[in-house]
Amino acid sequence: MKKPIERHQTLREKILETIRDAILRGALKPGEKVAEPELAERFGISRTPIREAFRQLESEGYLTVIPRKGAVVTALSERDVKEFYAIKAILEGYAARMATKKLTEKEIERLEGINLRLQKLAEDGDVKSFYRVHNEFHDLFIKAAGNQKLSELLHQLVMKFNRPRLASLSLPGRMEISVSEHRKIIDAFKARNGDQADNLVRKTASLGGQLLIQSMAQEEGRAVKDSVLDQMVDV
Description:
235 residues, mainly alpha, Arc Repressor Mutant, subunit A, 2 domains, 11 helices, disordered N terminus, disordered C terminus
């Protein structure tokens, strides 16, 4: 029984990775339909595991599944981004404030270690690994806040914006700025300054939203007046 389960999980991950990569590379564009028959033929499987993969990708914000029509690549509006980051800023800022009181010295050391890994990944230009480790940084202090419902809510919220957030990290200098932001947040945790930690996380989220809107505008070929990265240097 174990072997078929392991094979199915491996195949499912391959399907997920194939679709994610196609979307991130721009081979599949917002609003474009993802064809089930082509995937079924490519992987030599029925449509059932493909539909399971579609549901997973819908929960991550990559696809929108439309009844009787199939799955299309999710298109986000500037309003979607602004509303998402407004909520994210409030919730993560509150989590940072609460975590300031509860983070142990060992956990703060772990945050520093994670940020050192991020610095190396930024130097290597490894966007995918950077995004994964970046999430580890935020997950650590969010969990340290000690509010399970808050942690679950933030996880569900962030999952919906995986694709555009990952894409925005590929902008020149974005990963380095993120590492710098994290250093300041860590300093606030060390000083046990809840107000500062809250404000830094909120401001970082707000600027992250602006950067994502800028990234979307560039993808659509619209003109961008000023780079948000210049503002982020001073965060």
